[in-house]
Amino acid sequence: MALAVIDTLSFTGNRPSVVEVATGIYAIAFTRGFSNEWLVTVSIDASGNIGDTVIDSFNFYTGAGSSSHYCGKPSLIHITGDIYAIAYEDVERDGNLVTVEIDSAGNITEPIIDSLEFLDAGIFQAFPGNLRPHIIHISGDIYAIAYCDFPGDPQPGVVITVDIDSAGNIEDAVVDSYTFDADSGEDPCIMHISGTTYAIAY
Predict the structure, then answer these.
(1) How many structural domains comprise the chain?
(2) What are 46-57's pLDDT values in tens digits?
(3) 43 in a domain, yes or no?
(4) Least buried of 30, 33, 79, 182, by fewest C-beta within 10 Å?
(5) Helix, strand, coil distribution of the chain in percent, nearest 5
(6) What is the pTM of this model?
């Protein structure tokens, strides 16, 4: 059987992160242009057919970027019910976490529910940052975010834990943090192994 693309849908953006919202409905967080973070919803049926247009869209972050200062890759995760969280890097290389509401039909509620700046870098860099956060669920209201503490030299790999309740409210401070590599922790990916054991590839 020959392999072939079933269907396509094009929209302007890059560095996407996608999750399932409901049967046939998916949310995609991505960077658009140089200084904008976007969230869109699309439909994809069981045969792989994609809806001709996005269902809804939300420009959840707009920064004072330019052709040489732009956002990094977002990481999208389902919290519970209609609540979702997005970890991302802004144009000042800060690490941010926001929560949003998406219903089962793909409708996105504006504005964001809550936000937390988990890394205050405050430095413009003339290239995309290496923060590249990756968020996963730990237990209950606790979530872990692995990221590269960028900019700087060295660029350590860090994992933090944060508290997000079922309504999308984020606790004002990081629960805990750990530097898993003091020299270089670029582009980390964290996953659960068993019990309280987790692995990070970077």
Answers:
(1) 1
(2) 999 999 999 999
(3) yes
(4) 182
(5) 0, 55, 45
(6) 0.93
